[in-house]
Amino acid sequence: MLGVTFGIAMFILMISFMKGVNKLLQDLVLSTTPDIHIYNDFKTDYSASIAGRYFNAGNRNWVIVHHPRPKQISLNLRNAPGIVADLRKHEEVVAVSPYLSALTLFHYGPVQWAANLEGVDIREEDRLFGLADKMVSGRPEDLLATDNGIIMGYKLAEDLNLLPGDLVTLTAPSKAQMRFRVVGTYKFGIATVDEYKAYVSLSKMQQLMGKNRDYITDIRIKLKDLDRAVPLAAAFGKKYGYKSEDWETVNASLKASNIIRDTLTYVVSITLLIVAGFGIYNIMNMVIISKMKDIAILKAQGFAGRDIIQIFLSQSLIIGLIGGMAGLLLGFLLSYGLSRVPFPQDDFIIITHFPVLFQGWFYIFGALFGILTTLLAGLLPARKAAKIDPVAILRG
Amino acid sequence: MQEAILKAEKLSKYFYEPSRFQVLHEVSLSIQKGEFVSIMGKSGCGKSTLLYLLSTLDTDYEGTIDIHGVKVTGLPEKNLARFRNEHIGFVFQFHFLLPEFTALQNVMLPALKLGRLDTPAIEAHAMEKLRQMEMHEHAHKLSGKLSGGQQQRVAIARALINDPDIIMADEPTGNLDSTNAAIISNILQELARQDNTIIIVTHDRDFANRTDRIIEMVDGRLQEPAVHP
Protein backbone atom coordinates (compact mmCIF):
# COMPACT_ATOMS: atom_id res chain seq x y z
CA MET A 1 0.00 0.00 0.00
CA LEU A 2 2.85 2.38 0.85
CA GLY A 3 4.36 1.46 -2.50
CA VAL A 4 1.27 2.70 -4.30
CA THR A 5 1.16 5.80 -2.11
CA PHE A 6 4.76 6.73 -2.86
CA GLY A 7 4.46 5.78 -6.50
CA ILE A 8 1.49 8.05 -7.06
CA ALA A 9 2.86 10.82 -4.82
CA MET A 10 6.10 10.89 -6.81
CA PHE A 11 4.17 10.86 -10.05
CA ILE A 12 2.15 13.87 -8.94
CA LEU A 13 5.24 15.69 -7.68
CA MET A 14 7.24 15.00 -10.82
CA ILE A 15 4.54 15.86 -13.30
CA SER A 16 3.58 19.04 -11.41
CA PHE A 17 7.18 20.17 -11.24
CA MET A 18 8.08 19.26 -14.82
CA LYS A 19 4.97 20.91 -16.21
CA GLY A 20 5.77 23.90 -14.02
CA VAL A 21 9.26 24.09 -15.51
CA ASN A 22 7.85 23.75 -19.01
CA LYS A 23 5.41 26.54 -18.37
CA LEU A 24 8.05 28.77 -16.81
CA LEU A 25 10.40 28.37 -19.76
CA GLN A 26 7.61 28.86 -22.25
CA ASP A 27 6.40 31.96 -20.43
CA LEU A 28 9.94 33.34 -20.32
CA VAL A 29 10.41 32.78 -24.02
CA LEU A 30 6.97 34.07 -24.92
CA SER A 31 7.53 37.15 -22.79
CA THR A 32 9.94 38.36 -25.45
CA THR A 33 8.91 36.37 -28.53
CA PRO A 34 5.84 37.41 -30.48
CA ASP A 35 3.40 34.70 -31.54
CA ILE A 36 4.09 35.63 -35.15
CA HIS A 37 6.85 37.86 -36.51
CA ILE A 38 6.60 39.25 -40.04
CA TYR A 39 9.70 40.83 -41.58
CA ASN A 40 11.49 41.38 -44.85
CA ASP A 41 13.97 38.53 -45.17
CA PHE A 42 15.99 39.93 -48.04
CA LYS A 43 17.03 37.46 -50.66
CA THR A 44 19.42 38.62 -53.32
CA ASP A 45 18.93 37.19 -56.74
CA TYR A 46 22.12 37.12 -58.81
CA SER A 47 20.84 34.95 -61.66
CA ALA A 48 20.53 37.95 -63.92
CA SER A 49 23.39 40.43 -64.07
CA ILE A 50 24.24 43.45 -66.08
CA ALA A 51 27.94 42.64 -65.73
CA GLY A 52 28.13 41.17 -69.25
CA ARG A 53 26.67 44.29 -70.81
CA TYR A 54 28.88 46.45 -68.66
CA PHE A 55 32.06 44.77 -69.89
CA ASN A 56 30.85 44.52 -73.51
CA ALA A 57 31.46 40.79 -73.35
CA GLY A 58 29.25 39.82 -76.23
CA ASN A 59 27.83 36.31 -76.60
CA ARG A 60 31.00 34.26 -76.71
CA ASN A 61 32.74 35.48 -73.59
CA TRP A 62 32.02 34.58 -69.99
CA VAL A 63 32.18 37.23 -67.29
CA ILE A 64 32.54 35.72 -63.82
CA VAL A 65 31.75 37.94 -60.88
CA HIS A 66 33.16 36.83 -57.54
CA HIS A 67 31.26 37.70 -54.39
CA PRO A 68 28.49 39.85 -55.79
CA ARG A 69 26.85 42.22 -53.35
CA PRO A 70 23.61 44.15 -53.56
CA LYS A 71 23.95 47.79 -54.30
CA GLN A 72 20.73 49.02 -52.99
CA ILE A 73 18.24 47.02 -50.98
CA SER A 74 15.27 48.06 -49.02
CA LEU A 75 14.65 46.17 -45.76
CA ASN A 76 11.29 47.68 -45.09
CA LEU A 77 7.86 46.15 -45.59
CA ARG A 78 6.23 47.87 -48.53
CA ASN A 79 2.66 48.89 -47.79
CA ALA A 80 3.25 48.27 -44.06
CA PRO A 81 0.28 50.45 -42.95
CA GLY A 82 -1.99 48.44 -45.27
CA ILE A 83 -0.75 45.13 -43.84
CA VAL A 84 -1.15 46.37 -40.26
CA ALA A 85 -4.69 47.58 -40.94
CA ASP A 86 -5.53 44.26 -42.60
CA LEU A 87 -4.09 42.22 -39.69
CA ARG A 88 -6.02 44.24 -37.14
CA LYS A 89 -9.23 43.20 -38.89
CA HIS A 90 -8.31 39.50 -38.56
CA GLU A 91 -10.47 37.93 -35.87
CA GLU A 92 -7.77 35.68 -34.40
CA VAL A 93 -5.36 38.54 -33.85
CA VAL A 94 -5.31 40.34 -30.52
CA ALA A 95 -2.53 42.89 -31.05
CA VAL A 96 -0.38 44.07 -33.94
CA SER A 97 2.78 46.00 -33.28
CA PRO A 98 4.65 47.43 -36.27
CA TYR A 99 8.18 48.54 -35.51
CA LEU A 100 11.48 49.62 -36.91
CA SER A 101 14.67 48.26 -35.40
CA ALA A 102 18.36 48.93 -35.89
CA LEU A 103 21.60 48.30 -34.05
CA THR A 104 22.67 51.61 -32.53
CA LEU A 105 25.62 52.80 -30.51
CA PHE A 106 25.02 54.24 -27.05
CA HIS A 107 27.69 56.72 -25.99
CA TYR A 108 29.01 56.46 -22.47
CA GLY A 109 31.92 58.86 -22.21
CA PRO A 110 34.54 57.50 -24.62
CA VAL A 111 32.87 54.06 -24.69
CA GLN A 112 30.39 53.01 -27.36
CA TRP A 113 27.87 50.44 -26.36
CA ALA A 114 25.95 48.57 -29.06
CA ALA A 115 22.31 47.73 -28.40
CA ASN A 116 19.22 47.07 -30.44
CA LEU A 117 16.99 50.10 -30.65
CA GLU A 118 13.36 49.58 -31.55
CA GLY A 119 10.99 52.31 -32.66
CA VAL A 120 7.58 51.08 -31.56
CA ASP A 121 4.03 52.04 -30.84
CA ILE A 122 4.56 51.54 -27.10
CA ARG A 123 0.89 50.84 -26.38
CA GLU A 124 0.83 47.97 -28.86
CA GLU A 125 4.10 46.66 -27.42
CA ASP A 126 2.52 46.77 -23.97
CA ARG A 127 -0.42 44.71 -25.23
CA LEU A 128 1.96 42.15 -26.74
CA PHE A 129 4.35 41.62 -23.85
CA GLY A 130 2.65 43.14 -20.82
CA LEU A 131 5.39 45.74 -20.59
CA ALA A 132 3.59 47.72 -17.91
CA ASP A 133 4.04 44.83 -15.41
CA LYS A 134 7.74 44.58 -16.11
CA MET A 135 8.69 48.22 -15.59
CA VAL A 136 11.30 48.80 -12.89
CA SER A 137 10.81 52.55 -13.11
CA GLY A 138 8.48 54.79 -15.08
CA ARG A 139 5.52 53.73 -17.19
CA PRO A 140 5.29 52.75 -20.88
CA GLU A 141 3.04 55.78 -21.56
CA ASP A 142 5.84 58.10 -20.47
CA LEU A 143 7.42 57.45 -23.84
CA LEU A 144 4.54 59.25 -25.49
CA ALA A 145 4.46 62.09 -22.99
CA THR A 146 8.15 62.94 -23.34
CA ASP A 147 9.82 64.37 -26.39
CA ASN A 148 12.77 62.11 -27.31
CA GLY A 149 12.04 59.65 -24.54
CA ILE A 150 13.70 56.26 -24.31
CA ILE A 151 12.85 53.12 -22.29
CA MET A 152 15.61 50.58 -21.82
CA GLY A 153 16.46 47.39 -20.00
CA TYR A 154 17.48 47.94 -16.37
CA LYS A 155 20.81 46.23 -17.02
CA LEU A 156 21.62 48.48 -19.96
CA ALA A 157 20.78 51.51 -17.83
CA GLU A 158 23.11 50.18 -15.11
CA ASP A 159 25.90 49.58 -17.60
CA LEU A 160 25.60 53.11 -18.91
CA ASN A 161 25.11 54.55 -15.41
CA LEU A 162 21.78 56.08 -16.42
CA LEU A 163 18.90 56.99 -14.14
CA PRO A 164 15.44 58.09 -15.25
CA GLY A 165 15.67 61.70 -16.41
CA ASP A 166 19.27 61.36 -17.67
CA LEU A 167 20.19 62.05 -21.26
CA VAL A 168 21.96 59.54 -23.54
CA THR A 169 23.41 60.06 -27.01
CA LEU A 170 22.80 57.45 -29.72
CA THR A 171 24.40 56.95 -33.11
CA ALA A 172 22.38 55.30 -35.85
CA PRO A 173 23.98 53.10 -38.60
CA SER A 174 23.57 56.12 -40.88
CA LYS A 175 25.92 58.03 -38.51
CA ALA A 176 23.09 60.32 -37.50
CA GLN A 177 23.15 61.20 -33.81
CA MET A 178 20.33 62.01 -31.45
CA ARG A 179 19.91 62.59 -27.70
CA PHE A 180 17.21 60.78 -25.74
CA ARG A 181 15.96 61.15 -22.20
CA VAL A 182 15.54 58.00 -20.12
CA VAL A 183 11.90 57.78 -18.99
CA GLY A 184 11.77 54.21 -17.74
CA THR A 185 13.53 50.88 -17.30
CA TYR A 186 12.15 47.35 -17.46
CA LYS A 187 13.17 43.86 -16.36
CA PHE A 188 12.13 40.77 -18.34
CA GLY A 189 14.57 38.37 -16.68
CA ILE A 190 16.30 37.61 -19.97
CA ALA A 191 19.81 38.98 -20.49
CA THR A 192 19.53 39.77 -24.18
CA VAL A 193 16.45 41.86 -23.59
CA ASP A 194 17.51 43.55 -20.37
CA GLU A 195 21.01 44.45 -21.50
CA TYR A 196 20.82 44.89 -25.26
CA LYS A 197 17.45 46.42 -26.08
CA ALA A 198 15.78 49.80 -25.78
CA TYR A 199 12.52 51.34 -26.97
CA VAL A 200 11.88 54.75 -28.53
CA SER A 201 8.75 55.95 -30.28
CA LEU A 202 8.30 54.87 -33.88
CA SER A 203 8.38 58.40 -35.26
CA LYS A 204 11.64 59.26 -33.45
CA MET A 205 13.20 56.07 -34.76
CA GLN A 206 12.14 56.92 -38.31
CA GLN A 207 13.63 60.35 -37.79
CA LEU A 208 16.90 58.90 -36.45
CA MET A 209 17.15 56.53 -39.41
CA GLY A 210 16.26 59.30 -41.84
CA LYS A 211 13.26 57.44 -43.18
CA ASN A 212 9.70 58.49 -43.93
CA ARG A 213 6.71 57.83 -41.70
CA ASP A 214 5.70 54.63 -43.48
CA TYR A 215 9.07 52.98 -43.07
CA ILE A 216 8.55 49.81 -40.99
CA THR A 217 10.80 46.74 -41.00
CA ASP A 218 8.93 44.28 -38.77
CA ILE A 219 5.47 43.45 -37.52
CA ARG A 220 4.82 41.51 -34.32
CA ILE A 221 1.48 39.79 -33.81
CA LYS A 222 -0.20 38.41 -30.71
CA LEU A 223 -2.90 35.79 -31.26
CA LYS A 224 -5.95 34.76 -29.25
CA ASP A 225 -4.82 31.13 -29.36
CA LEU A 226 -1.13 30.39 -29.11
CA ASP A 227 -1.50 27.01 -30.76
CA ARG A 228 -2.82 28.57 -33.96
CA ALA A 229 0.52 30.32 -34.58
CA VAL A 230 1.90 27.73 -37.00
CA PRO A 231 -0.93 27.67 -39.56
CA LEU A 232 -1.60 31.40 -39.27
CA ALA A 233 2.07 32.30 -39.75
CA ALA A 234 2.11 30.30 -42.95
CA ALA A 235 -1.11 31.94 -44.12
CA PHE A 236 0.15 35.47 -43.38
CA GLY A 237 3.47 34.76 -45.10
CA LYS A 238 1.66 33.67 -48.22
CA LYS A 239 -0.80 36.53 -48.15
CA TYR A 240 1.65 39.40 -47.71
CA GLY A 241 4.69 37.89 -49.42
CA TYR A 242 7.08 38.43 -46.52
CA LYS A 243 8.85 36.09 -44.16
CA SER A 244 6.45 35.10 -41.40
CA GLU A 245 7.71 33.09 -38.43
CA ASP A 246 5.72 31.52 -35.62
CA TRP A 247 7.11 31.28 -32.07
CA GLU A 248 7.44 27.49 -32.17
CA THR A 249 9.78 27.61 -35.16
CA VAL A 250 11.84 30.35 -33.56
CA ASN A 251 12.08 28.37 -30.32
CA ALA A 252 12.31 24.83 -31.66
CA SER A 253 14.74 23.89 -28.87
CA LEU A 254 12.12 24.81 -26.26
CA LYS A 255 9.66 22.36 -27.75
CA ALA A 256 12.30 19.62 -27.90
CA SER A 257 13.23 20.12 -24.26
CA ASN A 258 9.55 20.11 -23.26
CA ILE A 259 9.09 16.77 -24.99
CA ILE A 260 12.22 15.36 -23.32
CA ARG A 261 11.07 16.49 -19.85
CA ASP A 262 7.60 15.07 -20.41
CA THR A 263 9.01 11.74 -21.55
CA LEU A 264 11.34 11.62 -18.56
CA THR A 265 8.43 12.33 -16.22
CA TYR A 266 6.29 9.57 -17.66
CA VAL A 267 9.09 7.02 -17.77
CA VAL A 268 10.07 7.60 -14.13
CA SER A 269 6.46 7.74 -12.92
CA ILE A 270 5.42 4.60 -14.73
CA THR A 271 8.49 2.79 -13.39
CA LEU A 272 7.54 3.85 -9.86
CA LEU A 273 3.97 2.65 -10.33
CA ILE A 274 5.11 -0.67 -11.79
CA VAL A 275 7.40 -1.20 -8.80
CA ALA A 276 4.42 -0.40 -6.55
CA GLY A 277 2.37 -2.89 -8.59
CA PHE A 278 4.93 -5.62 -7.95
CA GLY A 279 4.71 -4.79 -4.26
CA ILE A 280 0.97 -5.45 -4.33
CA TYR A 281 1.53 -8.56 -6.42
CA ASN A 282 3.88 -9.97 -3.76
CA ILE A 283 1.57 -9.07 -0.88
CA MET A 284 -1.40 -10.68 -2.61
CA ASN A 285 0.61 -13.81 -3.35
CA MET A 286 1.55 -14.10 0.33
CA VAL A 287 -2.04 -13.53 1.41
CA ILE A 288 -3.27 -16.22 -0.93
CA ILE A 289 -0.69 -18.75 0.25
CA SER A 290 -1.71 -18.12 3.86
CA LYS A 291 -5.41 -18.32 2.96
CA MET A 292 -5.25 -21.51 0.90
CA LYS A 293 -7.23 -23.46 3.50
CA ASP A 294 -9.95 -20.81 3.65
CA ILE A 295 -10.18 -20.73 -0.14
CA ALA A 296 -10.68 -24.51 -0.14
CA ILE A 297 -13.46 -24.18 2.48
CA LEU A 298 -15.22 -21.52 0.44
CA LYS A 299 -15.00 -23.68 -2.65
CA ALA A 300 -16.37 -26.71 -0.80
CA GLN A 301 -19.32 -24.58 0.27
CA GLY A 302 -20.14 -23.63 -3.25
CA PHE A 303 -18.08 -20.56 -4.04
CA ALA A 304 -16.95 -20.62 -7.67
CA GLY A 305 -13.58 -19.50 -9.06
CA ARG A 306 -15.14 -16.19 -10.07
CA ASP A 307 -16.20 -15.48 -6.49
CA ILE A 308 -12.65 -16.12 -5.29
CA ILE A 309 -11.24 -13.78 -7.95
CA GLN A 310 -13.77 -11.16 -6.88
CA ILE A 311 -12.73 -11.44 -3.22
CA PHE A 312 -9.02 -11.03 -3.83
CA LEU A 313 -9.42 -8.46 -6.57
CA SER A 314 -11.55 -6.30 -4.32
CA GLN A 315 -8.88 -6.59 -1.64
CA SER A 316 -6.17 -5.32 -3.98
CA LEU A 317 -8.52 -2.65 -5.30
CA ILE A 318 -9.11 -1.43 -1.76
CA ILE A 319 -5.35 -1.33 -1.24
CA GLY A 320 -5.05 0.55 -4.52
CA LEU A 321 -7.82 3.02 -3.69
CA ILE A 322 -6.66 3.83 -0.17
CA GLY A 323 -3.00 3.87 -1.20
CA GLY A 324 -3.85 5.91 -4.26
CA MET A 325 -5.87 8.50 -2.36
CA ALA A 326 -3.10 8.81 0.22
CA GLY A 327 -0.67 9.13 -2.68
CA LEU A 328 -2.66 11.94 -4.28
CA LEU A 329 -2.77 13.77 -0.97
CA LEU A 330 0.93 13.23 -0.30
CA GLY A 331 1.72 14.25 -3.88
CA PHE A 332 -0.26 17.44 -3.46
CA LEU A 333 1.45 18.23 -0.14
CA LEU A 334 4.90 17.55 -1.59
CA SER A 335 4.32 19.64 -4.69
CA TYR A 336 2.80 22.40 -2.58
CA GLY A 337 5.86 22.23 -0.35
CA LEU A 338 8.16 22.43 -3.36
CA SER A 339 6.27 25.41 -4.72
CA ARG A 340 7.03 27.21 -1.43
CA VAL A 341 10.78 26.52 -1.55
CA PRO A 342 12.61 29.74 -2.43
CA PHE A 343 14.57 29.63 -5.66
CA PRO A 344 18.23 30.72 -5.42
CA GLN A 345 18.18 34.39 -6.35
CA ASP A 346 20.02 35.68 -9.36
CA ASP A 347 20.11 39.04 -11.16
CA PHE A 348 18.39 37.80 -14.25
CA ILE A 349 15.99 35.20 -12.86
CA ILE A 350 12.62 36.69 -11.99
CA ILE A 351 11.13 33.65 -10.21
CA THR A 352 11.18 33.52 -6.43
CA HIS A 353 10.07 29.90 -5.85
CA PHE A 354 10.38 26.58 -7.63
CA PRO A 355 7.89 26.44 -10.48
CA VAL A 356 5.09 23.95 -9.80
CA LEU A 357 1.91 23.64 -11.80
CA PHE A 358 -1.30 22.45 -10.13
CA GLN A 359 -3.74 20.87 -12.53
CA GLY A 360 -6.68 18.57 -11.92
CA TRP A 361 -5.92 16.14 -14.68
CA PHE A 362 -2.56 15.18 -13.13
CA TYR A 363 -4.52 13.88 -10.17
CA ILE A 364 -7.16 12.14 -12.27
CA PHE A 365 -4.43 10.53 -14.35
CA GLY A 366 -2.51 9.47 -11.23
CA ALA A 367 -5.62 7.95 -9.65
CA LEU A 368 -6.58 6.10 -12.83
CA PHE A 369 -3.10 4.76 -13.31
CA GLY A 370 -2.84 3.72 -9.66
CA ILE A 371 -6.12 1.81 -9.83
CA LEU A 372 -5.13 0.19 -13.11
CA THR A 373 -1.78 -0.95 -11.67
CA THR A 374 -3.33 -2.44 -8.54
CA LEU A 375 -6.03 -4.13 -10.59
CA LEU A 376 -3.46 -5.82 -12.79
CA ALA A 377 -1.21 -6.66 -9.85
CA GLY A 378 -4.16 -8.19 -8.00
CA LEU A 379 -5.59 -10.07 -10.96
CA LEU A 380 -2.72 -12.51 -11.42
CA PRO A 381 -2.61 -13.79 -7.81
CA ALA A 382 -6.43 -13.83 -7.69
CA ARG A 383 -6.57 -16.04 -10.75
CA LYS A 384 -4.04 -18.32 -9.12
CA ALA A 385 -6.23 -18.48 -6.01
CA ALA A 386 -9.25 -19.38 -8.13
CA LYS A 387 -7.38 -22.33 -9.60
CA ILE A 388 -6.53 -23.86 -6.20
CA ASP A 389 -7.70 -27.46 -6.02
CA PRO A 390 -9.72 -27.73 -2.78
CA VAL A 391 -9.38 -31.51 -2.60
CA ALA A 392 -5.60 -31.36 -2.41
CA ILE A 393 -5.80 -28.95 0.54
CA LEU A 394 -8.74 -30.51 2.40
CA ARG A 395 -7.11 -33.94 2.33
CA GLY A 396 -4.10 -32.40 4.06
CA MET B 1 -38.66 -48.78 -3.77
CA GLN B 2 -37.67 -45.28 -2.73
CA GLU B 3 -35.99 -42.95 -5.17
CA ALA B 4 -32.19 -42.86 -5.14
CA ILE B 5 -30.97 -39.38 -4.26
CA LEU B 6 -27.43 -40.25 -5.31
CA LYS B 7 -26.36 -42.73 -7.94
CA ALA B 8 -22.76 -43.43 -8.91
CA GLU B 9 -21.77 -45.76 -11.70
CA LYS B 10 -18.40 -47.30 -12.39
CA LEU B 11 -16.29 -44.63 -10.73
CA SER B 12 -12.60 -45.06 -11.41
CA LYS B 13 -9.97 -42.67 -10.14
CA TYR B 14 -6.26 -42.55 -10.70
CA PHE B 15 -3.47 -40.81 -8.81
CA TYR B 16 -0.52 -39.72 -10.89
CA GLU B 17 1.89 -38.77 -8.11
CA PRO B 18 4.35 -40.29 -7.43
CA SER B 19 3.35 -42.85 -10.09
CA ARG B 20 0.13 -43.87 -11.82
CA PHE B 21 -2.01 -45.68 -9.32
CA GLN B 22 -5.67 -46.68 -9.51
CA VAL B 23 -7.40 -45.63 -6.28
CA LEU B 24 -10.96 -46.58 -7.20
CA HIS B 25 -11.94 -49.56 -9.33
CA GLU B 26 -15.31 -49.08 -11.02
CA VAL B 27 -17.19 -48.27 -7.84
CA SER B 28 -20.97 -48.20 -8.22
CA LEU B 29 -23.38 -47.31 -5.47
CA SER B 30 -26.75 -45.71 -4.91
CA ILE B 31 -28.08 -43.97 -1.84
CA GLN B 32 -31.73 -43.53 -1.00
CA LYS B 33 -33.29 -40.38 0.27
CA GLY B 34 -33.19 -40.22 4.06
CA GLU B 35 -30.54 -42.90 4.35
CA PHE B 36 -27.69 -42.64 6.88
CA VAL B 37 -24.71 -44.34 5.29
CA SER B 38 -21.18 -44.85 6.54
CA ILE B 39 -18.20 -45.72 4.40
CA MET B 40 -15.55 -47.68 6.27
CA GLY B 41 -12.16 -49.02 5.40
CA LYS B 42 -8.47 -48.91 6.16
CA SER B 43 -6.31 -45.89 5.55
CA GLY B 44 -5.62 -45.47 1.86
CA CYS B 45 -8.45 -47.71 0.69
CA GLY B 46 -9.96 -44.77 -1.19
CA LYS B 47 -12.95 -43.98 1.02
CA SER B 48 -12.15 -40.25 1.35
CA THR B 49 -11.38 -40.07 -2.35
CA LEU B 50 -14.79 -41.58 -3.07
CA LEU B 51 -16.46 -39.00 -0.84
CA TYR B 52 -14.71 -36.12 -2.61
CA LEU B 53 -15.88 -37.49 -5.96
CA LEU B 54 -19.45 -37.74 -4.68
CA SER B 55 -19.25 -34.21 -3.27
CA THR B 56 -18.36 -32.90 -6.78
CA LEU B 57 -15.23 -31.19 -5.43
CA ASP B 58 -13.02 -33.62 -7.34
CA THR B 59 -13.92 -33.79 -11.01
CA ASP B 60 -11.03 -35.83 -12.34
CA TYR B 61 -12.54 -39.34 -12.58
CA GLU B 62 -14.15 -41.87 -14.90
CA GLY B 63 -17.76 -42.98 -14.56
CA THR B 64 -20.88 -40.94 -13.83
CA ILE B 65 -22.54 -39.43 -10.76
CA ASP B 66 -26.19 -38.37 -10.56
CA ILE B 67 -27.41 -36.39 -7.58
CA HIS B 68 -31.00 -35.34 -7.12
CA GLY B 69 -31.69 -36.40 -10.71
CA VAL B 70 -28.96 -34.16 -12.12
CA LYS B 71 -25.98 -35.64 -13.89
CA VAL B 72 -23.14 -33.71 -12.28
CA THR B 73 -20.37 -35.45 -14.21
CA GLY B 74 -18.95 -33.05 -16.77
CA LEU B 75 -20.68 -29.92 -15.49
CA PRO B 76 -18.54 -26.77 -15.69
CA GLU B 77 -16.84 -25.53 -12.51
CA LYS B 78 -19.24 -22.60 -12.07
CA ASN B 79 -22.35 -24.76 -12.21
CA LEU B 80 -20.81 -27.33 -9.86
CA ALA B 81 -20.07 -24.59 -7.31
CA ARG B 82 -23.69 -23.50 -7.46
CA PHE B 83 -24.86 -27.08 -7.22
CA ARG B 84 -22.70 -27.77 -4.15
CA ASN B 85 -23.95 -24.58 -2.58
CA GLU B 86 -27.56 -25.60 -2.99
CA HIS B 87 -27.59 -29.37 -2.60
CA ILE B 88 -24.59 -30.53 -0.58
CA GLY B 89 -23.48 -29.77 2.97
CA PHE B 90 -19.94 -30.73 3.83
CA VAL B 91 -18.31 -31.39 7.20
CA PHE B 92 -14.56 -31.91 7.38
CA GLN B 93 -12.29 -33.75 9.74
CA PHE B 94 -10.55 -30.56 10.84
CA HIS B 95 -13.68 -28.40 11.27
CA PHE B 96 -12.40 -25.75 8.82
CA LEU B 97 -14.18 -22.63 9.89
CA LEU B 98 -12.92 -19.18 8.88
CA PRO B 99 -11.23 -18.05 12.12
CA GLU B 100 -11.62 -14.30 11.38
CA PHE B 101 -15.42 -14.58 11.46
CA THR B 102 -17.85 -15.34 14.27
CA ALA B 103 -19.59 -18.70 14.47
CA LEU B 104 -22.80 -17.08 13.23
CA GLN B 105 -21.09 -15.47 10.23
CA ASN B 106 -19.49 -18.79 9.33
CA VAL B 107 -22.88 -20.46 9.32
CA MET B 108 -24.47 -17.66 7.32
CA LEU B 109 -21.81 -17.64 4.60
CA PRO B 110 -23.15 -20.38 2.27
CA ALA B 111 -26.69 -18.95 2.51
CA LEU B 112 -25.45 -15.46 1.67
CA LYS B 113 -23.75 -16.96 -1.35
CA LEU B 114 -26.94 -18.76 -2.37
CA GLY B 115 -28.89 -15.52 -1.96
CA ARG B 116 -32.28 -17.20 -1.64
CA LEU B 117 -33.21 -15.20 1.47
CA ASP B 118 -32.38 -11.69 2.62
CA THR B 119 -29.75 -11.13 5.30
CA PRO B 120 -32.03 -10.87 8.40
CA ALA B 121 -33.86 -14.05 7.39
CA ILE B 122 -30.56 -15.85 6.86
CA GLU B 123 -29.37 -14.67 10.26
CA ALA B 124 -32.52 -15.98 11.95
CA HIS B 125 -32.19 -19.26 10.09
CA ALA B 126 -28.50 -19.57 11.06
CA MET B 127 -29.36 -18.89 14.73
CA GLU B 128 -31.94 -21.62 14.59
CA LYS B 129 -29.41 -24.08 13.19
CA LEU B 130 -26.93 -23.10 15.90
CA ARG B 131 -29.61 -23.59 18.55
CA GLN B 132 -30.22 -27.03 17.13
CA MET B 133 -26.52 -27.73 17.76
CA GLU B 134 -26.78 -26.02 21.19
CA MET B 135 -24.21 -23.54 20.02
CA HIS B 136 -26.41 -20.42 20.02
CA GLU B 137 -24.69 -19.06 23.13
CA HIS B 138 -21.41 -18.91 21.23
CA ALA B 139 -22.90 -17.45 18.05
CA HIS B 140 -21.08 -14.13 18.32
CA LYS B 141 -17.70 -15.52 19.34
CA LEU B 142 -14.90 -15.62 16.82
CA SER B 143 -14.78 -19.18 15.56
CA GLY B 144 -11.03 -19.32 16.21
CA LYS B 145 -11.77 -18.97 19.93
CA LEU B 146 -14.01 -22.06 20.10
CA SER B 147 -12.94 -25.55 21.14
CA GLY B 148 -12.59 -28.34 18.59
CA GLY B 149 -15.92 -29.97 19.46
CA GLN B 150 -17.70 -26.62 19.40
CA GLN B 151 -16.17 -25.75 16.04
CA GLN B 152 -17.31 -29.05 14.59
CA ARG B 153 -20.85 -28.37 15.76
CA VAL B 154 -20.73 -24.95 14.10
CA ALA B 155 -19.44 -26.65 10.95
CA ILE B 156 -22.44 -29.01 10.99
CA ALA B 157 -24.77 -26.03 11.39
CA ARG B 158 -23.06 -24.46 8.40
CA ALA B 159 -23.53 -27.66 6.37
CA LEU B 160 -27.25 -27.53 7.19
CA ILE B 161 -27.88 -23.84 6.46
CA ASN B 162 -29.11 -24.29 2.87
CA ASP B 163 -31.18 -27.39 3.77
CA PRO B 164 -29.09 -29.60 1.49
CA ASP B 165 -30.24 -32.86 -0.07
CA ILE B 166 -27.16 -34.67 1.16
CA ILE B 167 -24.81 -34.04 4.06
CA MET B 168 -21.35 -35.44 3.57
CA ALA B 169 -18.86 -35.74 6.41
CA ASP B 170 -15.24 -36.78 6.16
CA GLU B 171 -14.22 -38.30 9.51
CA PRO B 172 -16.31 -35.80 11.47
CA THR B 173 -15.23 -37.32 14.79
CA GLY B 174 -11.70 -38.22 13.73
CA ASN B 175 -10.05 -35.28 15.40
CA LEU B 176 -12.13 -35.14 18.59
CA ASP B 177 -11.96 -36.64 22.06
CA SER B 178 -14.51 -39.33 22.92
CA THR B 179 -16.93 -36.96 24.69
CA ASN B 180 -17.12 -34.60 21.77
CA ALA B 181 -17.17 -37.49 19.29
CA ALA B 182 -20.21 -38.84 21.08
CA ILE B 183 -21.93 -35.46 20.91
CA ILE B 184 -21.25 -35.21 17.17
CA SER B 185 -22.41 -38.74 16.44
CA ASN B 186 -25.59 -38.07 18.43
CA ILE B 187 -26.22 -34.93 16.44
CA LEU B 188 -25.75 -36.75 13.13
CA GLN B 189 -28.03 -39.54 14.27
CA GLU B 190 -30.63 -36.99 15.26
CA LEU B 191 -30.33 -35.34 11.85
CA ALA B 192 -30.76 -38.75 10.18
CA ARG B 193 -33.93 -39.26 12.14
CA GLN B 194 -35.19 -35.94 10.78
CA ASP B 195 -35.04 -37.52 7.32
CA ASN B 196 -31.73 -36.03 6.19
CA THR B 197 -29.56 -38.02 3.82
CA ILE B 198 -26.12 -38.37 5.39
CA ILE B 199 -22.94 -40.01 4.14
CA ILE B 200 -20.02 -40.24 6.52
CA VAL B 201 -16.53 -41.60 6.11
CA THR B 202 -15.18 -42.98 9.37
CA HIS B 203 -12.67 -45.24 11.08
CA ASP B 204 -14.85 -45.60 14.13
CA ARG B 205 -16.67 -48.95 14.09
CA ASP B 206 -19.04 -47.97 16.95
CA PHE B 207 -20.05 -44.84 15.15
CA ALA B 208 -20.57 -46.77 11.89
CA ASN B 209 -22.72 -49.32 13.66
CA ARG B 210 -25.23 -46.61 14.50
CA THR B 211 -25.82 -45.86 10.78
CA ASP B 212 -28.45 -47.50 8.55
CA ARG B 213 -25.90 -49.10 6.28
CA ILE B 214 -22.15 -49.66 6.33
CA ILE B 215 -20.26 -49.72 3.07
CA GLU B 216 -16.92 -51.48 3.49
CA MET B 217 -14.11 -50.56 1.14
CA VAL B 218 -10.95 -52.52 0.48
CA ASP B 219 -8.29 -51.37 -1.97
CA GLY B 220 -10.58 -49.17 -4.00
CA ARG B 221 -13.40 -51.69 -4.33
CA LEU B 222 -16.66 -52.04 -2.42
CA GLN B 223 -16.64 -55.14 -0.27
CA GLU B 224 -20.34 -55.91 -0.78
CA PRO B 225 -22.75 -54.84 -3.47
CA ALA B 226 -23.61 -51.37 -2.22
CA VAL B 227 -27.16 -51.43 -3.37
CA HIS B 228 -29.86 -50.89 -0.85
CA PRO B 229 -31.30 -54.15 0.42
UniProtKB/TrEMBL annotation, chain B:
One of its GO terms (cellular component) is membrane protein complex. It comes from the Bacteria. This is Lipoprotein-releasing system ATP-binding protein. InterPro entries: AAA+_ATPase, ABC_transporter-like_ATP-bd, ABC_transporter-like_CS, MacB-like_ATP-bd, P-loop_NTPase. The keyword Ribonucleoprotein does not apply. Residues 6-229 form the ABC transporter domain. Transmembrane segments: none annotated. The keyword Translocase applies. It holds the Pfam family ABC_tran. Belongs to the ABC transporter superfamily. Macrolide exporter (TC 3.A.1.122) family. Keywords: ATP-binding, Lipoprotein, Nucleotide-binding, Translocase, Transport. GO terms for molecular function: ATP binding; ATP hydrolysis activity; transmembrane transporter activity. Signal peptide: none annotated.
